[in-house]
Amino acid sequence: LHARYVLNLLHETRKHLKQLPNISHVSTCYSEEVTVCGDLHGQLDDLFLIFYKNGLPSPSKSYVFNGDFVDRGKQSLEILIILFTFLLIYPKEVHLNRGNHEDHMVNLRYGFCVGLVAMSRVHGKKILKMIQNVF
């Protein structure tokens, strides 16, 4: 995606998240299920495997992602784009909890910042700043 679209997605995600309470309550009834995922750490293939086995988020398929979306893997930005897009499309079915890897100091240590700036030399710093605002 062009940086303009990534920045727009980040802006809309931040705007949505600011409206939410700090604690999310997710409940199901006996006929529904929730898929709980954690620690993707930039491994896009893992996210695709989860969606392949459990289905994409939808009004009938809820997901809770328990943080640690980025760092370590090479496709952290792609994971954020996918998760934030599903969050905006299905705000009642997709829930994102912040993990310790959604912190600027941890991102500096484990490579997300360097990888993002290297990937997009022109807009990388601006995107990184916006991602930190979202986190």
UniProtKB/TrEMBL annotation:
<dbReference type="Pfam" id="PF00149">
    <property type="entry name" value="Metallophos"/>
</dbReference>
<comment type="similarity">
    <text>Belongs to the PPP phosphatase family.</text>
</comment>
<dbReference type="InterPro" id="IPR004843">
    <property type="entry name" value="Calcineurin-like_PHP"/>
</dbReference>
<feature type="domain" description="Serine/threonine specific protein phosphatases">
    <location>
        <begin position="97"/>
        <end position="102"/>
    </location>
</feature>
<dbReference type="InterPro" id="IPR051134">
    <property type="entry name" value="PPP_phosphatase"/>
</dbReference>
<dbReference type="GO" id="GO:0004722">
    <property type="term" value="F:protein serine/threonine phosphatase activity"/>
</dbReference>
<dbReference type="InterPro" id="IPR029052">
    <property type="entry name" value="Metallo-depent_PP-like"/>
</dbReference>
<dbReference type="InterPro" id="IPR006186">
    <property type="entry name" value="Ser/Thr-sp_prot-phosphatase"/>
</dbReference>
<keyword id="KW-0479">Metal-binding</keyword>
<dbReference type="GO" id="GO:0051879">
    <property type="term" value="F:Hsp90 protein binding"/>
</dbReference>
<dbReference type="GO" id="GO:0046872">
    <property type="term" value="F:metal ion binding"/>
</dbReference>
<protein>
    <recommendedName>
        <fullName>Serine/threonine-protein phosphatase</fullName>
        <ecNumber>3.1.3.16</ecNumber>
    </recommendedName>
</protein>
<keyword id="KW-0464">Manganese</keyword>
<keyword id="KW-0378">Hydrolase</keyword>
<dbReference type="GO" id="GO:0043409">
    <property type="term" value="P:negative regulation of MAPK cascade"/>
</dbReference>
